[in-house]
Amino acid sequence: MKSIVQSFSLIGALTFASSAQAENISLNLYAFGIKAGTITVNAAETPNAYAVRGAVTPTRLLKKIKDIGYTGSATGVIKRNAHQVRKYSGNARTGSRNSVVNMRWRNGRPIVDAYKPERARRDYDLTPSKQSGTIDLLSSAYLTFKTATSETLCNSKRKMFDGRRLSELSLGKPKISGRIATCSGNYKRLAGFSPDKMKKKVNFPFSVRYEQNDDGTYRFQEFTADASIGKILGPSFARDEMPKVISKIIDVYVDKRTEEETFLDTYRRVGIDPFKERVYA
Q1: Tell me, what DSSP letter sits at residue 48?
Q2: Which residues of 166-175 are buried (b: 16+ CB within 10 A; e: fewer)?
Q3: Contact between 192 and 166 (Cβ < 8 Å)
Q4: 143-175 confidence digits (pLDDT tens)
Q5: How many contiguous H segments (helices) and E segments (strands) does the chain have?
Q6: CA separation (Å) from 81 to 138, 141, 148?
Q7: Mean pLDDT for the stretch of residues 111-135
Q8: Which of 86, 88, 119, 130 has the CB geometry, 3.0–4.6 Å to 74, for a possible disulfide?
Q9: HSE-up (13 A, CA, CB side) for residue 91
Q10: How far is CA 74 from CA 23, 70, 89, 142, 159, in A?
Q11: Average pLDDT in the 44-56 region?
Q12: Residues of the chain with pLDDT > 90: what percent?
C-alpha cells in the first residue's frame, strides 16, 4: 500500500527504428498513482552528429492541477564521444511561466537569439556568453535515457543552460545486479534562478533504472523522483477511490487559490492541513 501522493515514476517503453542509431522513447508520467501525461524523446545519431525532439503532453487531470507542457528540438555534433549542441528551440509551460526559446552554440558558448516573453534584466540574470561548456536540457535528457554500454552508462555530470538559468545534472556510477543497473542522480539549480526559488530548494535527487539487452548494452526502463509535494497524506486509498480523492484535492485548490496561483503555490502557502481535512472528512 502506498500513500496517495508519493514518488512518481516515468515508465519507459523503449523501441528501436530500423537503424540502430535511432531511438524512440515513450514514457508515462504518473501522479497520485494514475497516469498524468506522456513524455516522448525521439532521436537519431550518426558517428558525427545527433538530432533530438521531445515533448511533454499532460492529461486533463494534470492540467487541472498544474498546466505543464513542452515541445523542443536540438541538433549537434559528436566529437571524441562527446555530444556538443549546436541549435536548440523550445516551448515550455511550467505552471508558473510560459516561455519560447531559440538558442545556438558557437565554440561551446550559447547565443540566445530569442527568449519570450522578454523582460528587463534582473540582478541574478546570467550572461549567456559566459556559460561555456553547457548543453540544453533536452540533449541532457536524451543522454540520460539513451541506450549505453556498461562503460558509458551514467557516471556523468553535465551543466545545462536554458537561456536564463544554469543547472547541473549528475549521475553516479551504476549499481549492477544481474541484468538491472540502477544509477542515483541529482538535478541542481546553480545560478540564474530567483533568490526565492534558490531558498526553497536547490537539489532534486532521482534514480534511473536500466535493463541489459542481449548484446550487453543497457536500455532505459524507469526514472523515479520525489514529487514536488512529497509524501503528504498518510493512510493510503484503494485505486477505485482515487478519482474521488483527487476531486477533493482539486476542490481545496479551487477554494483556496488566489488569482493566477498554481496548485503548488497554493499548497506551499496554505500547507497540508486543508487537504488532509477534506480528504479524510
Answers
A1: S
A2: bbbbbbeebe
A3: yes
A4: 999 999 999 999 999 999 999 999 999 999 999
A5: 6, 14
A6: 18, 17, 12
A7: 96
A8: 88
A9: 3
A10: 15, 13, 7, 10, 16
A11: 93
A12: 54
